[in-house]
TrEMBL record:
One Pfam family this sequence matches: PLA1
Protein name as annotated: Phosphatidylcholine 1-acylhydrolase
Record text on subunit structure and interactions: Homodimer; dimerization is reversible, and the dimeric form is the active one.
Organism of origin: Gelidibacter salicanalis
GO molecular-function term, one example from the UniProt record: phospholipase A1 activity
Reaction it catalyzes: a 1,2-diacyl-sn-glycero-3-phosphocholine + H2O = a 1-acyl-sn-glycero-3-phosphocholine + a fatty acid + H(+); a 1,2-diacyl-sn-glycero-3-phosphocholine + H2O = a 2-acyl-sn-glycero-3-phosphocholine + a fatty acid + H(+)
Membrane topology recorded in Swiss-Prot or TrEMBL: Multi-pass membrane protein
Active site per UniProt: H169, S171
Transmembrane segments annotated in the record for this chain: 6-25
Places the protein is found: Cell outer membrane
Main localization of the protein described in the UniProt heading: membrane
Length: 300
């Protein structure tokens, strides 16, 4: 009953905020966009100048996310467990994500390329865990500098729309022994056709000494590339995110499925299912399956 009370309270709170946010973003200049050109200002008609705040990755709140295997003893590869005893964690927690981007430089490369800066933050919050004083189990911070160039040609029945690369840093801001971080150069290529969008993102992890690696072999678990497939119709959105280590031996990775359905205007219900490694950085080498339900404010 106590769990139910907190769940209902948080769900009503997020819904109330969402309805308030709808009043802010229901005008014509809403930050919610659909096409790749609208989202990344690729065509001349969609250019909006610099330092204008835009949505990036989905912005959502999941008041209930359940996992079949909570990570009570986080441990990096080749290291001892971070704690002497398993933490008394609950298998159900709150998860939320905020994400935005802004353009720093417009039309700098042959009059077409742009430079963006993006920021994404995700949180796993043990809000129902009174015994441990409701701590944030994990916070992940992900700033990145993105160089983007518009494209316009047919590719496998799709219209190629953009390509580029990003300097990406991701960390949890914690001290040893549960510090986790890595730096990458992420290449990207995106295309669309009718209601479909596809993003392909391989990456290279930047060199790091073995003595200063918080999460060794992270590429072998979280992966070396990801593909995102998005299908939208009548306000509904199906998003499939696949990550893979691209290794024939001990192949690892993850799959995340998101279903967003319309509630009112731009407010959507959100169902998220994840299975694999790297649901967050502290769990980079921890396999689990999670199911979360909540609401979304904006999407890709």
């Amino acid at each position: 009953m106590r769990f139910l009370k907190y769940f209902v309270f948080i769900y009503l709170l997020t819904c109330s905020y969402a309805l308030y946010a709808q009043g802010l973003f229901r005008k014509k200049d809403s930050i919610v966009t659909k096409s790749l050109s609208e989202s990344w200002e690729l065509d001349k008609k969609d250019k909006n100048g610099t330092f204008r705040l835009n949505s990036y990755k989905p912005f959502y709140v999941l008041p209930a996310q359940w996992t079949n295997r909570i990570n009570e003893m986080p441990q990096s590869i080749g290291s001892e467990p971070a704690f002497d005893e398993p933490a008394d964690l609950h298998s159900t927690e709150v998860k939320f994500q905020i994400s935005f981007k802004t353009k720093l430089i417009q039309s700098f490369l042959f009059g077409k390329g742009d430079i963006w800066v993006g920021y994404t933050q995700t949180a796993n919050w043990q809000v129902y865990n009174k015994q441990l004083s409701r701590p944030f189990r994990e916070l992940n911070y992900e700033p990145e500098l993105i160089i983007n160039y518009p494209l316009d040609f047919n590719f496998l029945g799709f219209q190629a729309k953009m390509a580029g690369f990003a300097f990406n840093h991701q960390s949890n801001g914690r001290a040893d022994p549960i510090s986790r971080s890595w730096n990458r150069i992420i290449f990207h290529f995106a295309m669309e056709h009718n209601n479909f969008q596809i993003y392909l993102k391989p990456w290279i992890r930047l060199d790091r000494s073995a003595d200063d690696d918080d999460n060794p072999e992270i590429e072998d678990y979280v992966g070396r590339a990801e593909a995102t497939v998005i299908y939208r119709k009548n306000g509904h959105s199906l998003n499939l995110l696949l990550r893979n280590s691209l290794s024939f031996k001990d192949n690892h990775g993850s799959l995340q499925f998101n279903y967003m359905y319309p509630i009112r205007n731009n407010l959507r219900g959100h169902l998220q299912v994840f299975s694999g490694y790297g649901e967050n950085l502290i769990d980079y080498n921890h396999y689990q399956t999670t199911v979360g339900i909540g609401i979304s404010f904006v999407e890709w």
